## 1
Amino acid sequence: MVRAAIVRIVCACARFHWTVIGGGAALMALAAVFDVTRFSINTDVERLISQDLPWHARQIALTKAFPQKGVSAVITAPTPENAEQAANELAQALKKNPRLFLKVVQPDSGDFFDRNQLLLASASDVSRTIAGLTQAEPLLGQLSHDPSLRGVMNVLSFAASQVRQGRIKLEQLNWPLTLGSETLDDVLGGRPAAFSWKELLQGHHSPAEQRRHFLEIEPHLDFAKLQPGAAADQGIHQSAAQLGLQQKFGATVRLTGQVPMDDQQFSVIRDSALRDTLTAALGVLVALWLALRSWKIIAAVFFSLVVGLATTAALGLAMVGSFNLISIAFFVLFVGLGVDFGIQFSVRYRAERHDQGTLHRALQSTAEKVGSPLALAAAATAVGFFAFLPTSYSGLSELGLIAGCGMLIAFACSLTLVPAMLALLNPPGEAAPLGFRFLAPLDNLLQRHRIAVVVATIGIVVAASPLLLQLPFDFNPVDLQSPNSPAVVTYRQLQKDPETSASDAEILAASIQQADAAAKRLGDLPQVSRTVTVNNYVPGDQDAKIAQLKSASGKLRAALDAGNQPAPSDEQTVASIRNAAKALSEAAGNQQGAAAGIARNVSALLTRLAEAEAGLRQNAEAAVVTPLLFDLDQLRGSLSPQPISIANLPPDLLSDWVLPDGRARVEALPKGDPNDSQVLEEFAAAVLKAEPSATGTAITYYEGGRTVTRAFIEAGAFALVAISILLFVTLGRVVDVLLTLVPLLLAGAVTLEICVLDGLALNFANIIALPLLLGVGVAFKIYYIMAWRAGKTGLLQSALTRAVVFSAMTNAIAFGSMWASNYPGMSSMGKLMALALLCTMGAAVLFQPVLMGPPRQISDYGETRADLSEAAE
């Protein structure tokens, strides 16, 4: 019945080819219009996984309670003062644009930290700082009274005079002169210059974390665009440029976080899409030419493919509204299987054209022989994809729905548009029979030793099966992104420091007290480096620190509040510079050693500065005096602290840790390298064991990987069962079902074993290759089992093998071209797809005919030669 219906359809389409082609063109046009007007990709990764999963529901609840900002601006500068001033200016500028920046938070800078920097420090740091300030009181008074380059030079002259008078040693000026030498070198060399009074007081250069500040920014996102945060990204960089942060402070602004990383990921995909598409198209054309040897037949296959693809896209948009980052892969799957159906039909047509002579008789015979195998392959493949529907991986579920429908559309197009186009174009007949006759000796050899081949093949695969236990799954989505994208580079650099690692775990506790208790439990875990709650911003020993600071304030207040002198003229500044140069030269005298050498070097640099243009002296003043004024203001505020409590924390800071209803957030950071997937996995597992309600980035990566893996296992099991039932209903024999499925399972096992040996980890991107392996693999195996049931022999040298080999080659070239993509996720997908196709082709072409052996004798089971002759050779 199926064969007769297919034959009638093919013959009718060939007879009324203009009508069919016109209808196909009209359908393509309507679908294309619908696609263009309705096409959209929802780039919200939160929607890829079912929100009903407990771990995902917890993450969503936490995100709603404490919205993720999405963008982290990392401001770095040569000195702590410059970094903080740049962060302050950028934050104020962004807050003036609430349309683009919904929220801007300074988690480590701003007025609160300026006023309380000493109160938030450790008791030992407070004591050491106060001692240093008390000792420097005379110098503070001079600098506060004359905060200019002249004042700085006068202080330097005073210090040099103390050396000459023997009150201090020249070595005590070694560090200040070293800093001054570096700054003067940059000023006189025309390079951006900076000077840090904090570093002068510390006695060493500041570590990187003190020269870096963050802004946490919640941008407006437009999910209708490929790069939802592009406008915010541009706005931040434009603000930094307009403020002149680089020129004033030597500051750089880098962006990282989920939004810029996703945007740059989509940009990489977009930029390489044209090149990858052209490469794939050229490769497919070459493979099709080798398979079909006729541009007219290739045109027929391409027309069918384009109509089917446009129609499937339109149907998909109608069903799901917009594609997601997973379901968009239906394009790849449709091209692969659509080309396969077209090649199977066209290669059989070429063989029949040689045997039958005329076009219409060849088309009728083709329909009789490949119609049922194609129908069964399309049905089995569609059922396999529909098996993805019940999974909790929403992205995969939608892919299964669209791809399943697409397989039926591809089958329909192959049986209608391909014969219609062939009838219209009427390609010339074949001069010689098709197939790979040169493989006849290998075919005979394999059949003679089939038992040994089957046992050896299965034995090797089974022996290697323990490798499957070592199959890695990289659940860190950052590993899929271009390592050269600025956001990823910044992210990786921050990940090296546990204090700035984004791979945290979080808990939403019922109260601050419960948050502190949970933090203590997590802090005891060996996998946790430290925990943070709102109480980390409420320092201990406040009373003692405040008493120390008030005492110091009484001693230093007069020095800090000294009235300012009028700004000096350039002539006065030059005179002070010359005096300082002379004083240093005299202090060095005839002494030997490093300190004397540095003093003489600074003296020479100051002499050059005094003789230079006034603009260079202005640059020197900006480099030295601007941070001085900033530090003096900070010092005045920090010497008059008020007790810190949760109640008087800044609203922006408090809202990041405590909700109005009293619930509080706990953050835990991993111990070890956060870039190591194994470290993150152990960290997430340990945290979940101690606190089952935990969520956060590390937990999301960990649970997301487990969910995706479980979804594919479930989908694979569902698909295998559904395909088995369909095959049994169609083939009527359990043995034939096994002969179809065993090579498929073998190909899957070999593919994954090679992945382990090659070090290719499964990830969120390349795991899409497994549905392709299932779809193409089932189709290939069905073609061979149907031909075998029809009594065909010499399958390795047949036209069927030619069709299968070139179908696999076409797909391998198309998908393998992604291997060269700049996007690591796409590259790994192309690599695994090419590997899967080669394995499934090998299992179908070399192993399945040997496994099946000679065709069985037709019994009274219900089969007849007439029933089976429809199978492809």
Note: Residues 2-46+263-476+702-868 form one domain.
## 2
Amino acid sequence: MVHPTRLVCTLLAASLAIPASASPKAPWVKGPGKRPVTRREAAINQSRRDQPWNETDSCGTGVSNYTVKAPKKNIWLGLTEAEVAGITEFVHNQKSLNLTAVENATNWDNSLLLVELMLPNKTDALNYFDGGGAEPARHAHIEVDHRASVHNPAYLDYIVGPLPISNKTTVEPLAWPYTKGPGSSHNYAADDDARNDFMNNFGAELADITRALWNGTAMGLDNDTMSIWGIDPLFQEDGRTISWDTFWNNNNDVYDDSTLLPLGLFLKPDITGRDPSQWSNQGVLYNGEFYDTIDDFKSAFYSGNIQTFGPNEDEEWGRTDQRGPVNPTDWQSPPMLIQPAGQRFQVDVEQQYVQWMDFEFYIAFTRDTGIKLFDINFKGQRIIYEIGLQEALAHYGANDPVQSGTAYLDSYYGFGPYAFELVNGYDCPSYAFYLNSTFYADETTRTHLNNICLFEQDAGHPIQRHSSSQYVTITRNIFFTVRTVSTVGNYDYMLDYTFYMDGSLHVTVRASGYIQSAYFANNEEYGFHIHEYLSGSMHDHVLNFKVDLDILGEKNSLQNVSFVPATVEYPWSNGKTRNTMKLEKSFVTTETGIDYPYNSAALFAVVNKDKPNKYGELPGFRVLPSTAPVHLTVNAAHWAERNFWVTKQKDTEPRSSHPFNNQDVADLVVNFSKFVDDESIEQEDLVLWINAGMHHVPHTGDLPNTVFSTAWGSRINYHNGNVTEVATFGSETIQPECTVDLRDSFTDLWDYTGDVVVRKFPYDPNDPFFNTQSIVKRDEDL
């Protein structure tokens, strides 16, 4: 599956060089005609043909100078190893925090969860970059898992600084970036170990039935064949904490397909408070029937009053090995990308600074949301101060309480820790340039090698072209991509920031991996029946991005240009009206949420009203989706209610979400709805909060893995859709050992003909190309 809604930011009112002026329809469109080739043109054509071809013995050996020194220090880069070590020691010495080393901490101790850079405020950053000011003071953001509390275990946010550690450094509760005030959220995961034991006790109580139904058990033993887990977030109803859980078969091999193996038996534990002796089970659900107690369920089962079904088992259908007959051409190496003249972009690895063509920018990386880009300049002017993922919501629907109660907020799990090394030649072209990322976990810093790739690529289609009877003009569409992949649980999210030579920036999110499925019984209205006892659980993906555009400065407005039908009487229409269409131009005046209009009959652009171009038009960036976006309503994710939002930039509103918004959903750390408070946004510093996503109804083609192409056009429940039937592409059997002849990679443009006419009447076999028109004449016609 791919989240196809790309954030496409297109430069408006740009000055582009046109290779040739437009001309009327070519003569061959209007009727017969022929343009003779002049002697001068013929001589030029021949001389160009005679120029020696530039050959090379191997691919990509002409490596250009790909290093560059960043003009300014990357103030978003992250903490150094020394800084992290100093901060960790410093906060452990703060008696008020009462920290225990992670390796010794129990469920009743406080421990340090996170140490990372507190990103500088935009006002301080611009003062440094544009105003000649000092580098912003460095501070750290830390998170403490405060479990040394009987009644209120909590996640707590603090700010530590200034850095480096000195007698001026302090630890203070972090409040100003959060709508709640001090960053704190009730920790409903404080007793996960006790909760697992609690659920395994029910597994033991039901072991006779699970053996009878599925020949397996979930009792917390090493030889268990099943697990019990359930909803996220937990239900919080009438002051009680409810966790619906269900039985799943375990995968018995290396394949991570357990989310394809639901078994259809559900429990309703009440886990209110921290004393497991006060916890209880409130019911059992099986095949659409609810039972108040486990005893009631057992009684019905043994009396034969329950219709039972079989298990979803870990077998070949859930594995990604090659299966089925192999296409004879699989053993040949497929087409591949090459970089014949070496790298054409420059990188300051230490500062994570990149230059490509007219673009330059800085890269940052965080634990919660992974990669961000800052200070994006095009042709020497800043166009985007910040762009980056804020949150990813996966909201499920089904007949059962687990799927219908699941709404993952993935920043809780983190995109950063699961951004693993990319597979060269598969995730990225074999010539890609790689960067590493570092994040904090369990009082260690971890570095994932080669998990950010940078590369140029040909789009496979030109960025512009036009042909006529006299000329053809065409430009290759070469783009530059920054890519990372995060495997958050069962899904692999591939995130691209793609830059185009015309100044456009596309943000694309794709997803593959294993679906989280539902048991098939009674689920017909919520998903397709995709395997023997399996239903594809319908769900929505919505990913929120922050886009802080600065168009010729920070003072901008949001323009709405609508396409409207109109009936107009013109001076030339002899008193009659004509049905036509017009543009209605307006501006969004206050902070608000916006849905893209029906039929895409409007465009929205961030423009600078104070700096029109020489034609009086407003320069800016248009924002549009590549396909129909989605939105939905979840209390912990108010940003998902509309396609995009526009707000006034504030240093106190740096993020639309918080990783612990999935904990205390009634008392959010960051409540995005409070960002939108009707302030004026005309010629102000604007931030767009844009959603990308899709509705996903899994089908047989999503087994074993969802494929990246699903949203663009694919089979649905046709055969099994298994891409693993085409697996190796010769990578393991035939390693090509040859020199690539680059002459086939470069087209002799002077061989372009353009048009061939074969005369049919009267037909002369001795001169079939009589009166042929072509842009470049054949030699014998010269």
Note: The chain has a mean pLDDT of 85.
